[in-house]
Amino acid sequence: MLRKSDIERIESTLEEMFPEAFCELIHQNPFELVVAVALSAQATDVLVNKVTPGLFAAYPTPDRLAAAPVEEIEEKIKRLGLYRNKAKNIKALAEQLLVLHGGEVPTDRAGLEALPGVGRKTANVVLSVAFDVPAFAVDTHVERVSKRLGICRWKDNVMQVEQTLMKRFKRERWSKLHHQFIFFGRYHCKAQRPNCLECPLLDMCREGKKRTKGLLPPLEGK
C-alpha cells in the first residue's frame, strides 16, 4: 500500500503537469453535458465533440430532442460506436427530463442515474462539472493510472477504484484530480505507448518498471 507521502507526491506531480485540466467535452449547460457524456461511452471526447455541435444545433433543449424521430438522431451521431442504442437512450433521457424533472437535469445522484444511458461515471461527471459537487468519476484513463501507480489493486473493479481514490485523496480535490488523472492517462501514461522514460513517477509505477527494464542506466553506486 502506498504511503501518505506517495499519495501527496502523486497529487503534487499531477498538479504540476496539468494545473489547468478540465472537462474536454464541449457543452454549454447541464443538458448538453449529460448528453455528451452519455454519448462518450466507448468513444473519444474528440469524436463526440465533432458530433455534438450539429446535434445540439438541431435539438438545443430536451423538448426538441424528445420530439425528434430516433432515425434523425441516429443520422446526426452515426459516426459514434453503438449510435443506434445511444440515439434511443438520449431521446428517452430527454423525454424523462420533461416528464419527471420539468425539463431540467437533476442535481442529485439518484435522479441522474435513473436517466436512460446514464451510469455512475456519467452521473459523477455531471455532478462534478455542472453542479460543483465533489466526485471522482472513473473512466478507463483513471482506472489505468490508479492501478499502474499502485493506488489500487489490479483486480479492483470500477467501484472499488472509485472508493479507494475517494479514501486516499481529500474530498475537495476529487473533481480536479479526476480531470488530472484523465489528462495524465490521455496525454502521458497512455494505454499502448506510455511516456515511461520521461515520467516523473516512473519509480513507483508497476507497469513502467516492466516496460523500461534494461533501458535505464544503473543507479549510482549499484
Automatic annotation (TrEMBL):
EC class name: lyase
Keyword Lyase tagged: yes
CDD domains: ENDO3c (cd00056)
GO biological process: base-excision repair, AP site formation
InterPro entries linked: DNA_glycosylase, Endonuclease-III-like_CS2, Endonuclease3_FeS-loop_motif, HhH-GPD_domain, HhH_base_excis_C, HhH_motif, Nth
Binding-site residues, [4Fe-4S] cluster: 189, 196, 199, 205
Catalytic activity: 2'-deoxyribonucleotide-(2'-deoxyribose 5'-phosphate)-2'-deoxyribonucleotide-DNA = a 3'-end 2'-deoxyribonucleotide-(2,3-dehydro-2,3-deoxyribose 5'-phosphate)-DNA + a 5'-end 5'-phospho-2'-deoxyribonucleoside-DNA + H(+)
Keyword DNA damage part of the UniProt annotation: yes
Pfam families: EndIII_4Fe-2S (PF10576), HHH (PF00633), HhH-GPD (PF00730)
Positions in coiled-coil regions: none
Keywords carried by this UniProt record: 4Fe-4S, DNA damage, DNA repair, DNA-binding, Endonuclease, Glycosidase, Hydrolase, Iron, Iron-sulfur, Lyase, Metal-binding, Nuclease
Ranges where the HhH-GPD domain occurs: 39-187
Catalytic activity, EC: 4.2.99.18
Gene Ontology MF term list: 4 iron, 4 sulfur cluster binding; class I DNA-(apurinic or apyrimidinic site) endonuclease activity; DNA binding; DNA N-glycosylase activity; metal ion binding
Note describing how the cofactor binds: Binds 1 [4Fe-4S] cluster.
Cofactor(s) of this protein: [4Fe-4S] cluster
HAMAP family: Nth
NCBIfam families in the cross-refs: nth
Summary of the function given for this chain in its UniProt record: DNA repair enzyme that has both DNA N-glycosylase activity and AP-lyase activity. The DNA N-glycosylase activity releases various damaged pyrimidines from DNA by cleaving the N-glycosidic bond, leaving an AP (apurinic/apyrimidinic) site. The AP-lyase activity cleaves the phosphodiester bond 3' to the AP site by a beta-elimination, leaving a 3'-terminal unsaturated sugar and a product with a terminal 5'-phosphate.
Stated family: Belongs to the Nth/MutY family.
PANTHER family: A/G-SPECIFIC ADENINE GLYCOSYLASE/ENDONUCLEASE III (PTHR10359), ENDONUCLEASE III (PTHR10359:SF18)
Protein name: Endonuclease III
Organism annotation: Exiguobacterium sibiricum (strain DSM 17290 / CCUG 55495 / CIP 109462 / JCM 13490 / 255-15)
Gene: nth
